[in-house]
Amino acid sequence: MTELSTTDPARTATGIRRASPADAGEVAAMVREIAEHEDQSVHVHVDGGRWRTLLARPDVVVLLAERDGRAVGYVSAVRQLHLWTGGDVLALDDLYIRPGHRDAGVGRRLMAALASLAAPEQLLVRWGVEVDNVDAQRFYRRLGATLRPKIQAAWTPAAYADAARG
User: DSSP string of 87-127?
Assistant: First the structure.
C-alpha cells in the first residue's frame, strides 16, 4: 500500500496509509473503541466481515495511523455527491486516536493526509462536532476549519414508519 505521508524521524515514526480489506478487524476494533468512548456502542452494527466489504469500496476512505506496526488511530470519510455544486465532497465520519497516542500530532497528521486526498480535486471536507466537545472544536479551528452552528437531524426507520405508510 502507498504511504500517504512521510514519517518524522524527530518523533516516534508514525506512518499514514489507506486501510485495505485486510485491516477490517483493526478498523472494527477502533470503531468500537470510539463508540464506547462516546457511550454509543449500542449503535455499532458493523463487524469485521462487513468492514472488509466497506474497505474495498472506492467511496469509503479510512486512513490508518501506525506506530511500530500498530494502528494508533484513524480518520474515516465517505465521498458523496453534493447536489448544490454537482461535485463531490468528503464527508468525514470519525477522527479517533487511541489513548496513549493523543496530543502527539497524530490527529493533525491524519487530517493532513485526508487533505492530501481531497486537494487534487479541490473537494470540500465537511463534518460535524458535538456542541460540548470543545477540545475537538479548538483542534479543528487550529487546522483552519470553519465552525458554524447547525442542528443535525436523524430520522430512524421506527420514527418514519408511519410517514412511509402514507
Answer: EEEEEEEEEEE-TTSTTSSHHHHHHHHHHHHHGGGT-EEE-
The three-class DSSP label of residue 157 is: helix
The pTM for the full model equals 0.86
Query: What angle (nearest 5°) sits at the alpha carbon of residue 103, between those of residues 100 and 106?
Result: 85
- Check: CB of residue 75 under 8 Å from CB of residue 110: yes
Task: Tell me how far apart the alpha carbons of residues 54 and 19 are, in angstroms, rounded to a whole number.
Answer: 10
| Residue the block writes with cell 512521510 | 6
pLDDT of 42-93, one tens digit each? 999 999 999 999 999 999 999 999 999 999 999 999 999 999 989 999 999 9
